[in-house]
Amino acid sequence: MTLLCMLCAILFAVGIYGVVMKRNLIKIVIGISLMVQAVALLLLGLGYAEGASQGIFQTIGLITMIGGLGVMSLMIVTAVRLYQKYGTFDISEIRRLKG
Amino acid sequence: MLVAIDILVGLAIVAGLIALESKRLKNSIALVAATGLIFVIASFLLGSAEVGIGSIVVFGILTPLLLQALKSTTDKDITLTPKRKTTRNEIFALISAAAFTITFLIVSFSLLEGLPSLAPKPIEGHIGLSIIREVIVLLAALAGIWAIIRKTGRQDK
Amino acid sequence: MNSAMLLWAVFLPIGTGVLCFLIPDKAKRFREDFTSIAALASLIISTIVFLGPDAHFQTAQMKFLPASFLDFYSSDFNSFLIVFVSFFGFLVSLYSIKYMDGMKRLREYYPYILITVGAANGALLSNNFLPFLGFWGIILVTLFLFTTIGSRDASPEKIFNAASKNMLILGGGDLALILGIGLLWQLSNSLNMSEISIPLHGAMATSSFILIATGAFSKAGAMPMHSWIPSMSTAAPTSTLAFLPASLDKLLGIYLLARVALDFFELNFSMNLLLMIIGGITIIAAVMMAMIQHDVRKLLSFHAISQVGYIVLGIGTGTTIGIAGALFHMLNNAIFKSCLFFTAGAVERRTGTANLAKMGGLGKMMPLTFVAFMIAALAISGVPPLNGFVSKWMIYQGIIEAGIAQSWIFLIIAMLGSALTLASFVKVGHSIFLGEKPHELGEVKEVEHSMKFPMAVLALICIVFGVLAQIPLLYFIGPVMGISFPEIGAAIVWTGFWNPTSGTILLLVALAIGALIYLAGRGMGMRTAPPFIGGETIGEGTTNSLNRGGRLTEPHETRVLGTEFYDTIRNMGILKRAYSKGETGSFDIYSLGKYLQPIGWILSSWHNGRLSNYVSWILWGLIVLFAILAFIN
Predict the structure, then answer these.
(1) Which residues of B touch A4 (CB under 8 A)?
(2) Which of A11, A43, C174, C343 is the most buried (most CB within 10 A)?
(3) Which has the closest alpha carbon to C129: C186, C204, C205?
(4) Taking a C-beta distance cutoff of 8 angstroms, is the pair C558, C538 a contact?
């Protein structure tokens, strides 16, 4: 469990790294997907450790994944619309063009 | 048993990092799909078939969506962002991320002390599934490694 | 049965208001009728609640809500107020049919009226602080939305500024109210209003009282928290001015102030003195500002502030008659102030302007509006035998009985305020209804019946409540104060040396004698004298500057402008500086915002729009959460 915990934390940190350091909107979405996975995996691991009958963890894990899907699809659509408007996925470039 | 999951998560970390650092967005998306596959397998291994099936749906939607976004926008799939200085905000955010990870680990260790260590437990009512599980783990690991090598290989060319 | 009526009184207007949103713009007539009928139904229900015995409604334990979450309690204190709330809602919905004709966003306007009535009923009837705050907040939101609809002559920036000012000042007041209620909860361990009664000892109770009173002041518009009313007055439709700042907000704010001063806390001398000082300052400063205004709506809004001063002063006296007078004045103020705003709206509708300098001589063309205006103006100035006099008389008596050594100061302030009120209404009456009609104004007709009716009814009530002041005192105010009148004769004695009915007869007799003398003098031939214009001289300064244009002024152009009546006062030494400061907003609590600007700079430097910045904030928030989690375990 300890190792899983650490690995999930690292996966989460990788996701944050992507969100913070990458300028490409698609990369930011990827970073968020990694973070969501990390959270859901941790929940599942906890449920496993508590015993297989712990349905609440699985439910929350499922909700996390589905909610993450909603967020990410919205982000992707927004990114596409931004690309159509500004011709780039680069957020600093978009900010510059926005003025 | 849990070692398999640890390996899977480790693979997911590597795949994620490469996905983020890859120059070609198509590679990144493929690697995201790979992490999704890893996640699905891991959730089956952790005994929650619902999450596994749900995640198949999630990544089954997310990957085509990302590909579609890529297709409808960029003509040539290579992003050459010019070198730039890391800003103060970004450094601060990275420090925050590190601090968060450390705090999280400290707190979760202190909270999880009462939990049993993760010895593999038989899941009731699923006799015979353990062999399938092992096979799936191996397949997943292979698939992950294959995906990573293949993508990085193409990147090198 | 009556307890179910309480639910109806709150949720029938809210429900019909929500339904009213669904009525499309095509069915315009139906929407107007629907609103009026719903308001009338609410008035009938409120009357049933008022006439019935005290009722109590409580919700049982529900899944997520605590028991008695909705807790309505009708007592003598609030049941007469909901009658008046519904009554004003009905009058405003009638008045709006013609007044709001041709304005934008009418589809929202009518539902807001009904929702406001329902929320006001809910706030008045609530016996638990949580639903009370909820309903209280709904009224703030509808006030904001009413303001955003905007008046005919306001620019979008003006409307935006006024609406945001409303939101900030009243929102700040509500914040103070919530904090005060939180402290009160700590002190009394109860959110049930009827259970709370604690002595005002110690810093916690005092600050709780002051915070709740701040919320009440901001709603009613007493002096430190008043400035939203003048800025709203020129930006919002006049019908909403008559509805919210003139009547409903007064009723609600004073209701809360009276509850907190009479029920929740047992006030001590220093708090009473504080209330009296606030009341006195409000009376005099607001009426001084009112005198110099050129826009009739703004002038009326300053009077709306000034009259709150009397009420606060009356509650501050702490004597039975003073508080009864204050509550009666609250009712009277809502009546004549709505009537005044209605007449201002009628004039504005017919002339297309609210500027006093551009009007004149409308008395002949709009006779009913003129009469209603004069009655309400005399009533607000405290001229006997109208209702304003009775309540002010009771407040004066309360001040005398208060037994404070310096109470004569407050008495002088109150009386001076009354005189200045009359002075400024002489100015308004002259500017709008008397004097000469300016040439720019074409033919002016009287307004339609649906606009006449509210004005006439309110003016009539002004007379009835003045001449027969026993009736409202006996049925509305007396039960609140816990005074039972064995007979009406006792009520008359109780209101001091002023006997409304016989006083009226005496006044009429005096007027008749005066008329006889006038008629007798007419037969003997008259001495002609130049018109008296308040000691001012007719010269370049007093003629209509719009017409002059460098030419020699012709006789018919020497119009005496009411707007220049009190320029002498305005240019008097110290007052001149005070006025110029008042006009630039130095006394406005809203302008304190500029001292908060450094905080705004810091906050905006935090918000630099960079994703990584926000990620760090979220992460530090999570770290804090984890730390708390670890600390708890």
Answers:
(1) 2, 5-6, 9, 118
(2) C343
(3) C186
(4) yes
Contact between C395 and C322 (Cβ < 8 Å): yes
Q: How many helices (H) and strands (E) does chain A have?
A: 4, 0
Tokens representing residue C191 in the block: 């959110």
Q: What is the bridge-based pairing of β-strands C71-74 and C55-58? A: antiparallel
Percent of all residues in chain B with a pLDDT value above 90, rounded to a whole number = 11
Over the stretch B98-155, which tens digit does the pLDDT of each residue have? 998 888 888 877 776 655 555 445 444 444 444 555 556 556 656 655 655 555 445 4
Of the candidates C361, C359, C257, the residue with the CA atom closest to the CA atom of residue C313: C257
8 Å CB contact between B60 and A59: no
Cα B121–B126–B130 angle (5° rounding)?
Answer: 65
Residue type, C198: I
Record the tokens describing residue B11, joined without a space: 């693979």
Say yes or no to pLDDT of C85 above 90. yes
Burial class of residue C555, CB neighbours in 10 A (0-12, 13-18, 19+) = exposed
Q: Residue holding tokens 């500002």?
A: C289
First CA to last CA across chain C, in angstroms? 51
Show the CA angle centred on residue C172, arms to residues C133 and C620, nearest 5°: 95
- The Cα B27–Cα B153 span in angstroms is 11
Chain B residues lying within 8 Å of C622, measured CB to CB? 100, 104
Q: Which two tokens stand for residue B111?
A: 């909270």
Q: How far is B124 from chain A (nearest CA, A)?
A: 8
Whole-number mean pLDDT of chain C?
A: 83
Tokens standing for C564? 């220049």
Distances (CA, A) of C578 to C288, C420, C594, C613: 10, 17, 20, 47
Candidates C264, C257, C367, C351; CA nearest to C312 is C257
Q: Among C281, C294, C295, C391, which residue's Cα sits nearest to residue C336?
A: C391
Backbone angles phi, psi at C143, to 5 degrees: -60, -45
Residue with token string 């400035």: C227
User: Is C136 in contact with C174 (CB distance < 8 Å)?
Assistant: yes
Cα→Cα distances A9→A44, B13, B94, B109, C463, Å:
14, 10, 14, 12, 78
The residue with tokens 């003048």 is C230
Neighbours of chain A (3+ CB pairs under 8 A): B, C
Test C611 with A91 for CB contact under 8 angstroms.
yes
C264-304 confidence digits (pLDDT tens): 888 888 888 889 999 999 998 888 888 888 888 999 999 99
DSSP state of B138: H
Select from C171, C253, C168 the least CA-distant residue to C219.
C253
Output the pLDDT for position B134.
Answer: 54
Detail the DSSP E strand segments found in C125-178. none
User: Measuring CA to CA, how many Å separate C247 from each of B22, C147, C333, C339, C463?
Assistant: 68, 16, 8, 10, 18
Tokens of C307: 């009259």
Asked if C207 contacts C569 with a C-beta cutoff of 8 angstroms, the reply is: no
Chain B residue with minimum CA distance to C630:
B107
A 23-52 near C (Cβ less than 8 A)? 28
**Considering only A12-21, B122-131, C225-234, C389-398, which range has the smallest mean pLDDT?**
B122-131
Asked if C622 reaches chain A (Cβ–Cβ under 8 Å), the answer is no
Query: Which distant-in-sequence residues (6+ apart) come within 8 Å of A74 by Cβ?
Result: none
Q: Do A26 and B66 touch (CB under 8 A)?
A: yes
Mutate to test the interface with B, among A5, A22, A34 (most CBs of B within 10 A): A34
Inter-residue contact A8 to A34 (CB < 8 Å): no
Q: What is the ipTM of this complex?
A: 0.88
Q: How many CB atoms lie within 10 A of CB C40?
A: 16
Q: How many CB atoms lie within 10 A of CB C364?
A: 11
